[in-house]
Design goal:
This protein has 194 residues and is of the alpha/beta class. Helices cover 28% and strands 27% of the residues. It contains six helices and seven strands, in the order αβαβββαβαβαβα. A seven-stranded mixed sheet has the order 2-3-4-1-5-6-7, sandwiched between helices. α2 crosses α6. Residues 1-7 have low confidence and may be disordered.
Length: 194
């Protein structure tokens, strides 16, 4: 085999984009990464233990048995030219120090919101706004319930008009894909305006 046969053609390699999937504790980040990833996702889940009592707020998510302690990782091919690498962040406040490292090189983010506990979303929204990282909000409809329309959620979270708010189901691949495509569309529109 000639040496040139072994060289990769850079023009045929897809562009890769790093996307963060963020939000509060128990909002469905691991589920979203797992449902949309075309590869078996890397997960760093550990069982919740007695040591977390009084530290981790389980109000509204009492059935939760495991938690992400570092990150989730998945991949989705949008087209032959574009591949997304998804990095799910840990939700508990004691693990937020990892978000800065995970955000390095990220072009955008999905902030996942549980409307039963919207206060869990404020830290993630603030994180991306302070760093100027574009994001969309995915409202995860637990048990298929969406008690509020997107505009009410936008107002409750004090989101600017340019941030898209989409209803989704973290368990459904197509629903999650649509949220990711909305983020990519937003990133492209921002690049064109710049």
């Amino acid at each position: 085999m000639a040496g040139s046969d072994l060289a990769t053609d850079a023009s045929s390699a897809p562009d890769t984009v790093k996307i963060l999937i963020a939000g509060g504790f128990g909002v469905g980040k691991t589920t979203l990464v797992g449902s949309v990833s075309e590869i078996v996702p890397l997960r760093t889940e550990e069982p919740l233990t007695m040591a977390g009592l009084g530290v981790d707020d389980l109000d509204g998510i009492e059935e939760k048995r495991a938690t992400t302690v570092a990150l989730d990782f998945g991949r989705i091919t949008i087209s032959r030219e574009l591949v997304l690498y998804l990095f799910g962040t840990p939700g508990q406040q004691r693990f937020w120090f990892m978000w800065n490292d995970l955000a390095l090189g990220a072009l955008g983010a999905v902030v996942l919101v549980d409307v039963r506990r919207p206060e869990c979303s404020f830290a993630a929204i603030d994180f991306f706004e302070r760093r100027g990282i574009p994001f969309v909000v995915g409202v995860n409809g637990f048990h298929g319930e969406y008690p509020y329309p997107p505009e009410d959620i936008r107002e409750a979270l004090a989101l600017p008009e340019h941030v898209r708010v989409l209803l989704c189901d973290a368990r459904d691949r197509e629903s999650c894909r649509d949220v990711l495509i909305a983020l990519i569309d937003q990133l492209i529109a921002s690049a064109v305006q710049a």
